[in-house]
Structures are given as structure tokens and as C-alpha cells.
Design a protein that fits this description.
Shape: elongated
Structural class: mainly alpha
Helix content: over 70%
Strand content: under 5%
Number of strands: 0
Number of helices: 10
Amino acid sequence: MRRTKQQTAETRQQIVKSASALFRERGVDGVSVAEVMDKAGLTHGGFYKHFESKEALLTEAIADAFANSMCAWEETIAKQADGQLTIQALINLYLSEKHLNDTAFGCPAAALGTEIARYVGGSKKCFAAGVKGMIGVFEKHLECENASDRKDLAVTTVACLVGTLMIARCAENDKTAQSYTEASNKTLLRFLSSLNPRVIEGAKH
């Protein structure tokens, strides 16, 4: 029976979702096309009906991962009534224990950053766009008079969050991992409060 365009699109998205989770959990090189298809409940032979290569799949999987992360951020932002309190809420979300342990469905920047840095082409461009999107969210909600300072602070904040999550996941035990996330959270909060005292006031409630 011939599949409809909708069915084909749904199958393609199913493959992308499976790849997105597996790549973040085990790394791109640690996952084969056959394993992606198996997770999606499909046969290996059907892969090339949807994608030209694993690289093409990777690009879409990266886009999907960043889109999902942004959805979680948007939900958090929607619950806040103040820009600086939004910043603290995003930091708490990113450095939470749940996110720390949820590699397969967490931020792709922390899960795949070191690996994608060695890539070229579409997947790296897509990844770079995703990181810029993260920076853009912080840039929008940070309160700085100077636009250049706001951009610099947004870049630094995202870099700190991503780096913290990466080293925390490499820690020898849960206690050490938690100490890393708590240290970054506290330091970022202290720094942001020096720019706007309302940040630390909001964090107390």
C-alpha cells in the first residue's frame, strides 16, 4: 500500500526524534543508523528513503533538539512577570538536577558541543544557529543599558551554563556534580545581582 505524504512525514519525524535523543545520550559517533531506525521501530533499509546520509539526519536532529530546548525555555519565561526574574528562572532550569541527569532530552549544546566542533557543513551551521538562539534569549531579557554589554553578558552566561553542565556530567559522583551546578548558579546570581539587585531578591522567594 502506498504511503501518504502525511505518513511519510510522520515517519521521517519519528526517525529525527529517535536520532535526536540517541545522539545526545551517546554521541553521534556512538550511534549507528541501524540503531536509530531500531529505536524508531523501523527497518534499517528504509533509512535512505528519508535521508541521504547520517550527516543529513544529524542536521535535522540538532534542529529538533534545540527547538525542544527552546520550548522548555519559553514555558519557563511565560511563568515570569519580570525580565531579571526570568533570567534566574532559566538558570535554575538549566542547572537543575533533572536537566543534569536528562542527557537524552537535555540541551544539545552541552551534550554534543565538543563533538560538533569537529564537524563542518550543515550540521555545524545548524548547531551554531541553535547556540545563537540561546544567547538571544538571554540577551533579550538581561537588563543592561549598553547593547554591547548585554550581548557580552548573554554570551558569557550561556557559556557558563553549558560548560558547567558538561563538567558536572563528567564528575566522579553525584555530590561533586551537584557542587559544580550549585557553584555556577550562585556565582552567576551574585554577578547578575551586581547589575540588578532584583535578581537576588527574586531568587529568595
